[in-house]
Amino acid sequence: MKAALFDVEGTLIDCAQQSIETWQRTLARFGLDVPRQKLQEQSGRDTMEMLQELLPHCPEKTRKELAKQQGELYRKEYLPSVRPFDGVPELIRQTKAGGFKVGLATTCQPDELKVYLDKLGIDSLIDGIACGTDVKHGKPHPDLFKLGLRRLCCDAPSSLTLGDSPYDANAACLAHLEPFGVETGGFSRDALREAGCRAVFRDTKDFLERCEHWLFNMR
């Protein structure tokens, strides 16, 4: 059986820029000034690895506190107002019609995911979920995708992923999945293709309009 594993934040839910803004505000609380472009380049990456890259001289204890405060700020001031991208329920239905089991593989926390699922209205269409608390390492490590496959009882060959960052594509390649990309996370088409995406789309609506070719012609 083949699987389609979807990232959530920045792919199905329009929240990538809100997350970056939250990081900027949190870092500023600690007197740290990290350019927005630097945060954009790390968007979608495992949180602690992102902070290690951006703040190599910062103590681990401080990095953990940064991650905690960023999450709290995002939940309080941004999570209630984020919105889904267009066409997500229909995209999930079309994917299932193509013979795929559908799963979510996302680094977000369970309470955040519940809010996203309520907004998306796709809870009954999802066959399995792997989220941030289920694995030790986020993307670009393949852990989430590998767990997602196991929970769907599917094999990697003929299975695909859809994500908004190069780290999604990196993780998919390591899990031997076929990665596809959307530009809604702020990364360029070239960056997504260089990371391994087989094809890149403007957003989920664009993928929906063109997905029949890809979904019914997987290897």
Strand and helix layout:
Elements: E1 2-6, E2 13-14, H1 16-29, H2 36-42, H3 47-54, H4 60-77, E3 83-84, H5 88-97, E4 100-105, H6 110-120, E5 128-130, H7 143-152, E6 160-163, H8 166-174, E7 178-182, H9 189-194, E8 200-201, H10 204-215
Parallel strand pairs: 1-4, 1-6, 4-5, 6-7, 7-8
Antiparallel strand pairs: 2-3
Helix pairs in contact: 1-4, 3-4, 5-10
Largest beta-sheet details: 6 strands, parallel
The CATH topology label of the largest domain is: Rossmann fold
Which CATH C-level class of the largest domain is it? Alpha Beta
Q: Helical percent range?
A: 40-55%
**SSE-based structural type:** alpha/beta
**How would you describe the shape?**
globular
Can you name the CATH architecture of the largest domain? 3-Layer(aba) Sandwich
Protein described:
- By secondary structure, the chain is α/β, with parallel strands linked by helices.
- It has two domains: 145 residues, HAD superfamily/HAD-like (Rossmann fold, 3-Layer(aba) Sandwich); 65 residues, Orthogonal Bundle (DNA polymerase, domain 1).
- Helix content is 48%, strand content 13%.
- It has ten helices and eight strands.
- It starts with a strand and ends with a helix.
- 44% of the residues are buried.
- The model has no long low-confidence stretch (mean pLDDT 94).
Can you give me a brief rundown of this structure?
With 219 residues, the protein is of the alpha/beta class.
Features:
about 220 residues; alpha/beta; Rossmann fold; DNA polymerase, domain 1; 6-stranded parallel sheet; 8 strands
